[in-house]
Amino acid sequence: MGIGITELLVILAIVALLFGTKKLRSIGGDLGTAIQSFRKAMTEADAPRGPPEDSDPALGAPRKDGEPKP
What we know:
The chain is mainly α. It is built from two helices and two strands, in the order ααββ. It has helices spanning 5-19, 21-46; strands at residues 55-56, 61-62. The protein is elongated and about 70 Å long. The N and C termini lie far apart (68 Å).
């Protein structure tokens, strides 16, 4: 015996009455933004990173001051 569609609709109606639709929209928007930011951070963390711009790729060491960038 799980929760059916009827029970979910009753719970949703009670929550809408308690908080109001504007507050629920605000909460939903904030939750969506948080999930989107989390997913973006996860994909950026998984992306391969190249060497830093101020290092010499041939040596793998930082360049000396005065040397032009390639």
